[in-house]
Fold this sequence. Notes:
Layout: E1 2-5, H1 15-19, E2 24-26, E3 32-34, H2 43-52, E4 58-61
Antiparallel strand pairs: 1-4, 2-3
Amino acid sequence: MKIFVDRSKCQNHGLCAISAPANFELDTDGELQYHESFDEEHVDDIEDAIDSCPLQAILLSRDAA
């Protein structure tokens, strides 16, 4: 599974960083940084981050490829 953030939608609100701090963070310039790949143990937090995004800019790809 991989995380994808649609940068054309994301406005760096940072709610994802609150929900899943191991995978999302705002850098010193306030820009979202994230890890595309993640450990399965973090999937619940990532799903919470997806749900918390006011612009629905985060997608979770379940493809193995």
